[in-house]
Amino acid sequence: MASERIKLGASYRKLYLGTALSNIGDGMSGIAYPWLATAITRNPLLVALVAAAQRLPWLVFTLPAGVITDRVDRKRAMVLMDTLRFGFTLLIAIAVFFQQDSLPAPDEVKNVVGTRVGLYALLIIATLLLGCAEVLRDNCGQTFMPSIVKAEHLERANGRLWSIESVANTFIGPPIGSLLLLVAFSAPFFIDAGSFFAAAALVAAIPGSFRVEHPDGDVERPPWRAELAEGVRWLWRHPLLRAMAIILGVMNMASNLSGAMFVLFSQDVLGVTPLTFTIMGFGFAIGAIIGGYAAPWLSRTLGSGTCLAMTLGSAAVTQLLVGLSSSWPLTGVIFAFGALLGSTWNVITVSLRQTIIPPHLLGRVNSVYRFFAWGMIPIGAALGGLVVAVSRHFVSNELSLRMVFFVDAGIHLVLFFFARRLLTTDRLEAARAAAFSADADPQGSAEAAVPS
Questions:
Q1: Which fold has domain 2-208+224-449?
Q2: Which one, of 307, 305, 303, 289, lies nearest residue 344 by Cα?
Q3: Of 114, 129, 284, 430, which sits most exposed with the smallest number of CB within 10 A?
Q4: pTM summary value
Q5: What SS3 class is residue 236?
Q6: In the prediction, which pLDDT does 218 show?
Q7: How many helices (H) and strands (E) does the chain have?
């Protein structure tokens, strides 16, 4: 363990701890936000709109965020965005604090009638602002990692970071959030705000400047649209990353089609309370922890392409099983299996991008990639609400909530057959090898990075 810490470095440990603290807060809000939404309204479209609003910035702000990332000091940008997230979350906490006496108890949300319009509007606006700050912060965070960790240790560093994010988000934060909900509806939001402030302080303590120099030296930067176009061209000419971005986009759309309705599914079909909802989520956490640490070994043993295919295949199976389930403990077990393989996708693909994209283009190309990959999330969330709202006219409420999981499973099954021939181990390893090759284009030519 000591040797690994020396290799990853003190700066990485500060980033790791800051990530852990902020994700504990996110885990608490992961319980609080959906429960707050269902305490404000039971309309599936309005509940889905909250999830869509949180992810909409990934569709509309991701590309400009990439240009900003390549122009500014990435550490300072992360600190500023976490500080803004502290402020926005504190605003929600204060608003809920002053209205919590009029809200139903967390275990009585199914009795809500109508919509509290004022609080709902504030929730939508605040989640949009939080989403914008998250876009820039996360893009800077992923492009920041290669500056503090050596390339040969990126999979280990990303695996550990992904594991602690999963532990904090789904194993530590949610139970605390559930208990705090029983104390006061506003309590999880206040703690979440504090976690962002702590994360900002830890990242600020990392020494050094992290503004990336252009390879041509101190030259006048072109207009931001030209820089953005350069990032778009690089990704689009890279057949492997282009395919990976589009496939991940469809995956995220499918997952959020069901994910946006999961809180209603859990309440109305599985009959959970905030506490049992949290315990069910432990399955996801356990699987993600194991998957994050096992991802480098799985990649070496089975091949990175095989691991990605297993992620898609397992998602089809797990979503189908969740849709058929009426037991929250069984759903938790299914989540554990799905998360174990799902976390390997993140570790493998993020590490690959950090390795093969040139440093001066990393922010922009990463943002274009995430535009395709994450920009589909709000679309999926909105479609999930629409599927439930429409199907309720033809089938029971319970079957309409199960329907989104069946649709999700079908999309992942199609993706499995489509991606198996595109994301092969040979293609991934060839791209990685080209990045380390002295013959690779020093300006980051996409053609040099992946064989045709």
A1: Growth Hormone; Chain: A; (1.20.1250)
A2: 307
A3: 114
A4: 0.72
A5: helix
A6: 52
A7: 20, 0
3 state DSSP class of 393: coil
Tens digit of pLDDT for each residue in 308-358? Answer: 998 899 999 999 999 999 999 999 889 888 888 777 888 888 888 878 888
- For every residue of 12-46, which 3-state class applies, written as one string? HHHHHHHHHHHHHHHHHHHHHHHHHHHHHCCCHHH
What is the C-alpha separation between 302 and 256, in angstroms, rounded? 28
Q: Taking the domains of the chain in order of start, what are their residue ranges? A: 2-208+224-449
Strand, helix or coil for residue 297: helix
Give 7-53 pLDDT, tens digit per residue.
Answer: 678 888 898 898 888 878 777 877 788 888 888 888 888 888 887 88
Position of tokens 């900002």?
Answer: 200
Residues composing the chain: 452
Backbone CA torsion sign across 323, 327, 330, 331: positive
Rounded to whole angstroms, the Cα distance separating 20 from 22 reads: 6
Q: Encode pLDDT of 180-216 as tens digits.
A: 887 888 888 998 899 999 999 999 999 877 776 655 5
